[in-house]
Amino acid sequence: MSEAAKVPPRARPGYNRDNAFFRDGLKEGKFLIQRCVGCQTLRQPPRAMCPKCHSFEWDVVEASGMGTIYSYATHHHPPLPGIEMPARIVLVELDEGVRAVGNLVDATDADMKIGNRVTFTVRRYPNGDDTDYPQWKPEQAA
Ligand code: ZN
Q1: Which residues surround ligand 1, an ion (CB under 5 A)?
Q2: What is the number of other CB atoms lying within 10 angstroms of the CB of residue 10?
Q3: Is CATH 2.40.50.840 the classification given to domain 12-141?
Q4: Whole-prediction pTM
Q5: CA of 25 to the centre of ligand 1 (A)
Q6: Per-residue confidence in pLDDT tens, the chain, 142 aa
Q7: How many Cα atoms occupy the beta-carbon half-sphere of 25 within 13 Å?
Q8: For residues 97 and 70, is the Cβ–Cβ distance under 8 A?
């Protein structure tokens, strides 16, 4: 058995009727945001009911793919299955106003600064069914 085969795969994210549109959008390279039909409030992560007007009706809009680092953390230890170390984790405020968590890729520690501009990208990791994950990279690397 090769060394790579011994490493457990990256955990698969949940897939349900509330977030299926988001996961499917990633396969097309799109960051889709859930929007309430009743009051037009955007919400991320996806959920069944609007927290503002309590409507269950929603549609989706495609994000511009641009955002700003709102907060961040660098994970050094312990190693996590299928994740490159150090793992640069960012909370991004999208230009549309919602926030999303992801890894900052193609980056250095110097890129981890609150207020830095980032661009959305998708990375596919093998974990039994090749799942797409939303990621971010520094704007200049876009
Ligand atoms: Zn609403």
Answers
A1: 36, 38-39, 41, 50, 52-53, 55
A2: 17
A3: yes
A4: 0.86
A5: 22
A6: 455 556 677 777 888 888 999 999 999 999 999 999 999 999 999 999 999 999 999 999 999 999 999 999 999 999 888 788 899 999 999 999 999 999 999 999 999 999 999 999 998 876 666 788 899 999 975 4
A7: 19
A8: no
